[in-house]
Design goal:
Helices cover 62% and strands 6% of the residues. It is mainly alpha-helical. It has 2 domains: 70 residues, Multidrug-efflux Transporter Regulator, Chain: A, Domain 2 (Orthogonal Bundle), CATH 1.10.1660.10; 39 residues. It has a 3-stranded antiparallel sheet. It is elongated, with a radius of gyration of 19 Å. Keywords: DNA-binding, Repressor, Transcription, Transcription regulation. It comes from Metabacillus lacus. This is MerR family transcriptional regulator. InterPro entries: DNA-bd_dom_put_sf, MerR-type_HTH_dom, MerR_fam. One of its GO terms (molecular function) is DNA binding.
Length: 110
């Protein structure tokens, strides 16, 4: 896959009605979670919300937390922490790879 392509999991192609059917959440709940910045659908030129499979998974995770009594502000806080850990992890992997490449090229030099 080229860098310009998006994985099928990230493509925003699912309508809010289908997301509601898949998750068991009402359209109102899904819109509320959008208002709270827990999920960010794509908006078409006509304003139609489009979600990805990743968004559906995130909504299921949110619903599970809500059933456990976790407030949306706490869910958002935890989601941001998780995203930051993933970014840090990706950055560390990139640094390690760069170090391995540099070490490999240094080995071949006199």
């Amino acid at each position: 896959m080229s860098s310009g392509e998006t994985s099928y999991r990230e493509r925003k192609v699912i309508s809010i009605g289908t997301v509601s059917e898949l998750t068991g959440l009402s359209v109102r709940q899904i819109r509320y979670y959008e208002e709270r910045k827990l999920v960010l659908p794509h908006r078409t030129n006509k304003g139609t919300r489009k979600y990805s499979f990743t968004d559906v998974e995130r909504l299921m995770e949110i619903a599970n937390h809500r059933e456990d009594g976790v407030q949306t502000a706490e869910i958002l806080k935890e989601m941001r922490k998780k995203e930051q850990r993933e970014l840090n992890k990706a950055g560390l992997k990139k640094q390690m790879l760069r170090g391995q490449i540099n070490a490999q090229f240094q080995r071949g030099r006199p």
